[in-house]
Design goal:
heterodimer, A: alpha/beta, 34% helix, globular, disordered C terminus, B: mainly alpha
Chain lengths: 202, 36
Amino acid sequence: MLNWLKMSLLPPVGAWLIRLLGMAVRIRTEGADAVDDLYRQGGRIIIAFWHGRGLMLPLAYRGTEAHILISQHRDGELIHRIVSHFGFRSVRGSTTRGGVTALRQLIELGRSGVDLVVTPDGPKGPRQVAQIGVIKLAKATGLPIVPLTFSCSKKKSLRAGTASWSRIRLAEGCSCGGSRSGSLLTRWRRIWKPSGTSLRRP
Amino acid sequence: METDLEAKRHELEEALNRITAEADEAVSRESLFVKR
């Protein structure tokens, strides 16, 4: 019953909190020109960010359709339900469970013309150490990897459920008189693509 | 081949760490409160 309540109530509340944060903070975006150019040319990308840096992805995403790799764990289910409020779709799996099937699904999706979203260090860490899966995904799909991060001037880090090695960063908007806020910096790196023929689509 | 993949993995790791450090540095110079 408690779990049902959690899974039913938290996702819409979480989605609205993200929307409210988006309205409360000043969002500055850097480095997105190359991504926009690629979208204009009909290209698709693999977005990669560190676990704990992706909470504001719904506010930063610039494409039309993205599928996010999310673990099959209960916390993953919660994240899946929250991001679905923003129109994101999920592929469930991780290095510890369902990884092979998820990778196959992602490859098919990537080749079909949608964006893919992964956390190279998730779901169990170690923190900020990339796993090889995202590179294999880029090689198989031919899609460029675009590193993304965000940072906020007034931040709180929350320990995130079982992923206790990570810290979810929240932009903490301040509603004092409605005239002040924290600020959120979204930074994209210029297109990063595995170079060399060995990493292109076969 | 594996060496190539490993090099790319390392390159991605560095890129993510670099933009994250740059973003943290950029916002750390800002005031905690800014006028909208």
